[in-house]
Amino acid sequence: MSILATILESKKKEVAERKSRVSSKDLEKTGFFARNCHALSTSLVQPASTGIIAEFKRKSPSKGVINDALTVEEVTQAYVASGAACLSVLTDYPFFGGTDQDFELARRANPNTPILRKDFMVDEYQIIEAKAMGADVILLIAAALNPDEIKHLGNLARSLGMETLLEVHDEQELDRSLGDFISIVGVNNRNLKNFSEQNVETSKRLAERIPQSFIKVSESCISGPKTISELREYGYRGFLIGESFMKTDAPGKALLEFLNQE
Q1: Which residues of the chain have pLDDT under 50?
Q2: Do 58 and 94 contact (CB within 8 A), yes or no?
Q3: CATH at 101
């Protein structure tokens, strides 16, 4: 069984357990559910935008612990101060060490910044959870969902005022998953079956297949400012980076130094 399949099997059990504890109706009365969302698409296309989606991630299935010594508030606030256009916060605990509380703390610490809930979405319940947490954007992974599921979850997110980042990593996933319920397409340069490192050639190869009506985001394996400059030539406006910042003692400083190299 691939790592992705293992994660999805675990996630479905987790969601069933969550639903048994708190109903969707109760979620709609809690947290940040009533707040208006910030638009990631707007943030990425502003002329002065860095395009960086900076990620808070404690660990990964392939790397193990990356950084568990820093708080989510200090990392995300430093990211924003250093120029991040958006934050990405993991909420999967078994495989990535993330929690709902991480997200809520990041939301409170950064009230004016778009934040992506980074998790493996398999059920509409998680979309409602994301809204209650204060998410502006949710992630839908094409490798984990069929086209009908993507359409249903994407439309639900849009009806709640959130945007969807659709993640693909090959031509087949891209061609079968697009729709007007999606505004942002992310190309994952990492192999989701084994989480092995790749390079940004996947983003370059898929760029011309993504219609211009969608904002393009390149995810993972971005080694430096030169890579971002190359990807901009292919039409990419967003760049999701996590591990290269998180593996340092000061992720926000690492982002600032990264940007100063451009």
Answers
A1: none
A2: no
A3: 3.20.20.70
